[in-house]
Design brief:
mainly alpha
Amino acid sequence: MSFRLPWMREVRKAEIPQASRDLFERYGEEIIANIVCGGFNPRAPELRDMYQNERMIVEATKWLTERGDVKISHEQRIELVEWLILVFVVASVILDCIILFGR
């Protein structure tokens, strides 16, 4: 179970076979995106076969959507941590000022 605030993006998990997921993760997002767009001539036979397999292209598109959601979710968590650190620093400065000048 993961913590997610209401404004944070939910990761849409791609329901694809594990073999396809392994292939996509092996070659990475850029290579798979180039194959989906049709602008890449790979030497690996398993990647060349993707051009003719419409099911693999659909699976790759779903996987790329999932990867995009994961990136955005990660960025949102990092931004949340940055804001929390800023709030704690400002609260600390205010508290120090109250203690220092309150005497």
